[in-house]
Design brief:
Layout lengths: L2 E4 L2 E4 L1 H8 L6 H20 L7 H14 L20 H22 L4 H7 L4 H7 L17 H15 L25 H7 L10 H4 L2 H13 L14 E4 L3 E7 L15 H6 L30 E3 L5 H30 L12 E2 L4 E2 L7 H19 L13 H14 L4 H8 L15 H9 L4 H6 L5
Antiparallel strand pairs: 1-2, 3-4, 4-5, 6-7
């Protein structure tokens, strides 16, 4: 939701609400970025309304201000009164892209003379009004796409130059040949993390008091199956079945479009959840604790499913052993509490055992949240530190976060020479090119390989070695 301060008071920006309703399957982060971009544009247009800028000049100055800020670097004064700090070209392009997509959509719908939009236009500054009624604006290209139509890209860049009156700056991240550096979770720490990291009370006889089994099971799926962090939270209890030869089979199903998998039930998962007053967890309308990320992974067209491939059978057997314990001794009592509070049960496998004492809200039996897992994972790293007797640096840069476990799986397969098609299937990528990131060697390994070559004679010829 975006609220604007207009001459008539605080006003909901209803066109944005309609925009989100037209895109129900977009992520929460996408919606937040769009709201922020349009909010910044509105603030800027109000701040410069007295200048009488043309549409093109308004957008040019806005995009420059996103990148360079609004504060004069010499006088430290800001005539706009916004006091925006300098940003990056990457942020500039993301904001402009969000605005571009919204305007293109609004241009299409406004042709039908949308009365809500027309009423809104009466309240905004003329400069922003001209901008919002513009049509056919080039959208910035996303770095996430692995293939692009060169002709369309060239045409798009020309349109951007004409509309904005400028070319957006060169983002060094997008230079040809650049590959995003990813740090894998240290291989030597994974066995110890799983064995020791989730032990809460080593003296407890109850396995659920002794270990944080929910967080441990999710970690096994990330470290052994290469899942993205949000994917385990979409699993239903019936998505895990025994496989005597390899422990168990775990299957990811599309959160809304796939069927329930219950015998005799042909409903989609969305329909089944709706009967229990719940949303699929990937929906932007889901509450903060219920929401879980879901990327458009490669799924079977008929069943909208994707099998989880464990890189070693030990992960599969361990997960199955814990699943049986979880389903027989842990989940039932929590679901009983949930049903007492909500009048019905839910099908999600992983459940919470917490409560908000300050608000007096019980989360016992509710679908386990991503935030709860993040906290549990952080505590597991803390226990691992005590076990090892040394400090472990946190974060993405050190490969010590949940998503780094997925990169570990991809890197292990790439190092072992696994065929690209197999890696694609295991990682649930939609394109072969997506796995290139796992093949990038860290600087220390490059240096080690370089040292293994005999280069002395070549360097001696040019006087580099005596």
């Amino acid at each position: 939701m975006l609220y604007l301060i207009t001459p008539n008071g605080l006003s909901v920006f209803w066109p944005l609400v309609e925009y989100f309703k037209a895109r129900p399957n977009t992520s929460l982060s996408w919606a937040r970025q769009t709201s922020r971009a349009l909010g910044l544009l509105y603030d800027f247009s109000v701040a410069v309304a007295d200048l009488g800028l043309s549409r093109q000049e308004l957008f040019r100055r806005f995009s420059l201000s996103l990148c360079h800020g609004t504060i004069d670097p010499e006088t430290y004064q800001d005539k706009t009164g916004l006091y925006w700090a300098p940003g990056s070209v990457s942020v500039q392009k993301k904001m402009c892209s969000s605005i571009t997509r919204f305007i293109a959509w609004k241009d299409e719908t406004s042709r039908k003379e949308d009365p809500v939009f027309l009423r809104y236009l009466e309240e905004v500054p003329p400069s922003l009004r001209r901008l919002l009624t513009a049509s056919k604006i080039i959208a910035s290209k996303s770095m996430l796409y692995h293939t692009k139509d060169v002709n369309m890209l060239a045409e798009g860049l020309d349109k951007a130059r004409k509309f904005f009156g400028m070319e957006l700056g060169n983002d060094p991240r997008e230079s040809i040949g650049n590959i995003r550096t990813v740090n894998n979770f240290p291989s030597e720490l994974i066995p110890q993390l799983i064995t020791h990291g989730f032990i809460r009370d080593p003296h407890a006889t109850d396995p659920f008091e002794r270990e944080d089994i929910t967080a441990k099971m999710i970690t096994i799926l990330l470290a052994g199956g290469g899942l993205r962090k949000g994917e385990p939270f979409h699993l239903w209890f019936n998505d895990v079945v025994p496989e005597p030869a390899r422990g168990c089979a775990v299957t990811l199903f599309h959160p809304s479009g796939s069927q329930t998998g219950f015998r005799g039930n042909k409903q989609t998962r969305e329909q089944y959840l709706a009967q229990r007053k719940m949303l699929p967890r990937n929906r932007s309308g889901a509450s903060r604790s219920h929401h879980a990320t879901w990327k458009s992974l490669a799924v079977d067209k008929k069943t909208l499913s994707a099998p989880v491939y464990f890189i070693h059978e030990s992960y599969s057997f361990l997960f199955w052993e814990m699943y049986l314990l979880y389903m027989n001794r842990y989940r039932p009592s929590l679901m009983k509490s949930y049903k007492a509070n909500h009048g019905t049960e839910h099908p999600f496998l992983f459940v919470s055992n917490g409560e908000d004492r300050g608000a007096g809200i019980s989360y016992r039996g509710a679908p386990y949240s991503m935030a709860a897992f993040d906290k549990s994972f952080e505590r597991a790293l803390g226990r691992l530190e005590k076990k090892l007797g040394r400090k472990l640096p946190r974060g993405r840069d050190y490969g010590l976060n949940p998503h780094a476990l997925r990169h570990h799986v991809g890197h292990v397969m790439a190092e072992a020479g696994v065929e690209p098609q197999i890696i694609k299937d295991v990682m649930h990528h939609r394109t072969i090119d997506a796995q290139e990131v796992y093949k990038k060697l860290p600087p220390d390994k490059v240096q080690k390989i370089l040292a293994s070559y005999t280069l002395s004679s070549q360097l001696n010829n040019i006087g580099m070695v005596k």
